[in-house]
Amino acid sequence: MMTKTDFTIDRNLSEKLIFITGANSGLGFETTKFFAEKKATVIMACRNMQKAQKAKNLILEEYPEAKLSVIELDLADMDSIRKCAAAFNKTYEKLDVLINNAGVMVPPYSKTKQGFELQFGTNFLGHFALTGLVMPALLKTENSRVVSLSSLASRIGKIDFEDLQSERKDYKKWPAYGQSKLADLIFSKELARRLENINSSSISVAAHPGGSPTNLQRSSSFLMKYILTPLISHPPEKAALPTIRAACDPTVENGSYWGPSGFFELTGKPEKAKIPLRAKDIDTAKRLWNEAKGLTGVTYPFGSGKE
């Protein structure tokens, strides 16, 4: 059993196929680099192909034998998500780990291509759709997992079923962000429940990075970006460890949540994180799942009556 002082993954992961969204920067880049070092095959799903190729080349400079490929994915566009999933499914028959990492944080009010509020549409609906579309490969792969990235902001989140798209005139970007990350955590827990219902060996887990000065901060205030975040955060290579542990630690259990173990879960070694009470409500989870199915048009191949 790993403890707070001896966390490490020293296994060769050459047989693993890892799919990471938002792999070209921040936590996604550090996570990709880790799996490249461990000899896994990594699919880097990114919106900007030029940045993705640059990130791939940087990793190859450090690990020339790394098995990396890039694939275009814009989580703010359902057409792009379907195209990406179709390309993946045509090329691969298995998938060991899907890491739903990409996201946007507190931008000015804007919408996805299909008209969803950008944060809810990208962070939650986009990953809900992608996961469902590649689920056949996950279900075919023994002991596969889905890792969904949440945030400490999920603690301030509230699922407002009367205004999921934050269309009210008094749009507040932080509550909207909190809702999207709470939705990610609820999705992870509900997916875990549904996988258990069909006796699948696949599992669904979640992770959060604590505080980390990544590109997600680009829309934050000067105070948040340059003063508060550096004081209460750890670097991306440390902040990525909860995701990494959730993705490949063999002791990780279905439905678990991982984050830093220090004060307020802002920094520290990766351990089990506190799950907000709102993320545990099954009725909310079922309703959110059904809302996501209706909005995205994506259903999961769990069989009649299992959803």
Please specify the SSE layout and strand pairing:
Blueprint: E1 17-21, H1 26-37, E2 41-46, H2 49-62, E3 67-72, H3 78-91, E4 97-100, H4 118-140, E5 145-149, H5 173-197, E6 203-207, H6 222-231, H7 236-239, H8 241-248, E7 257-260, E8 270-272, H9 282-296
Parallel strand pairs: 1-2, 1-4, 2-3, 4-5, 5-6, 6-7
Antiparallel strand pairs: 7-8
General description of the model:
The protein is an alpha/beta fold and about 300 residues long. The chain is built from 9 helices and 8 strands. The N terminus is likely disordered. This is Oxidoreductase. Belongs to the short-chain dehydrogenases/reductases (SDR) family. Keywords: Oxidoreductase. It holds the Pfam family adh_short.
Structure, briefly:
Pfam families: adh_short. This protein has 307 residues and is of the alpha/beta class.
Helix amount, in percent?
A: 40-55%
- Report the sheet with the most strands, covering strand number, pairing sense and barrel closure: 8 strands, mixed
Separate helix tally: 9
Summarize the helix and strand pattern as letters: EHEHEHEHEHEHHHEEH
Termini Cα gap: 34 Å
Whole-number count of domains: 1
Global mean pLDDT: 90
Low-confidence stretches: 1-6, 215-220
CATH hierarchy: architecture = 3-Layer(aba) Sandwich
Category by helix and strand content: alpha/beta
Radius of gyration: 18 Å
Q: From the structure provided, what is the oligomeric state, counting identical versus distinct chains?
A: single chain
CATH class: Alpha Beta
CATH superfamily: NAD(P)-binding Rossmann-like Domain
* Strand composition percent: 5-15%
Strand order of the largest sheet: 3-2-1-4-5-6-7-8
Query: What best-fitting shape do the alpha-carbon axes yield?
Result: globular
Number of strands: 8
Reported by name, the CATH topology is Rossmann fold
